[in-house]
Amino acid sequence: MSEGLKYTILLLLCIGSRAASSINYIEDIDSLRFALSAIEFDVTKQQPHFPAYPFFCYLLNFLNDFIKNIGICFSIIGGFSIFLICLYMSKIIESITSRNKKWLLFIIIFCHPFLWLMSNRYMPDILGLAILIATTFYLIKAIKKQDPKTIITLSFLLGIECGVRLSYLPFFIPIFY
User: Fold this and answer.
1) 49, 121 in Cβ contact below 8 A?
2) Count of domains forming the chain
3) Which residues have a Cβ under 8 Å from the Cβ of 176 and sit 6 or more positions away?
4) Distances in Å between the alpha carbon of 151 and those of 20, 58, 137, 148?
5) Under a CB-based contact definition with an 8 Å cutoff, are residues 117 and 154 in contact?
6) Domain residues for 137?
7) How far apart are CA 92 and CA 110, in angstroms?
8) Contact of 34 with 50, CB cutoff 8 Å
9) How far apart are CA 9 and CA 7, in angstroms?
10) CA atoms within 13 A on the CB side of 35
C-alpha cells in the first residue's frame, strides 16, 4: 500500500470518526458564540467574541453552507485537525530522530481521549494546535535548510494561526527561541 493511500485512509478515518461522534449541544457560552458565528459572523454581537478568529469562522461558514449541520461542521474541522497533528508530529519526529514509529504515534493521537473531545467541541482550539505544530515543523525545516519557500510557508502559517487562535501565538515564542 502506498504512503499516499495510507494518509488518505487516515484522513477519512479522522474525519469519519469525529463526524460519527459529533455532539449536538452547546457546552458553554464560548461554544454558543462560535456556533452562532457559523450562521452569522458578527463581532459586534459577540459571534464569536474578540478577536473574532476570522479564518476559522470563514472556514466554518463555508462548511455550514454545504452541510447545514453545525455540529458536523465542527467535527469535520476537528477530524482534519487531528489528521494535521498526526502528519506534522510524525514529520517533526522524523526530522529529529532516525526511529520510525509514526504509525504508533498516529494510533496514540487518534485515540487520545482529550484530543477526541477537543476535536468535537464547538471551538477553534484543536485547529489552532494543529497549525502551531505545523508551524513548528516548518520552523525546524527553515533552520536546517534556509529555503525561501519554507520561510514563506512558515510566515503564512503564522498568519493563519492568528486568524484561527490568536491566543496560541505566544506558545510559538519559546519554540522560536
Assistant:
1) no
2) 1
3) 139
4) 37, 25, 11, 5
5) no
6) 3-176
7) 17
8) no
9) 5
10) 18
Longest dimension (CA), the chain: 51
CB atoms within 10 A of CB 62: 12
Q: How many CA atoms lie within 13 A of 133 on its CB side?
A: 19
Give the cell for residue 84.
Answer: 494535521
For 49, phi then psi, to 5°, come to: -70, 165
Dist. CA 164–CA 38, nearest whole Å: 14
Residue with cell 453545525: 70
**In angstroms, what CA-CA distances link 110 with 14, 117, 136?**
7, 11, 20
pLDDT in tens, the chain (177 residues): 788 898 999 999 999 999 999 988 888 888 888 888 888 888 888 888 778 788 998 999 999 999 999 999 999 999 999 999 999 998 988 887 766 777 888 899 999 999 999 999 999 999 999 999 999 999 989 888 888 999 999 999 999 999 998 888 888 888 777
Look at the pTM and tell me if it is higher than 0.70.
Answer: yes
The Cα–Cα gap between 77 and 124 comes to 9
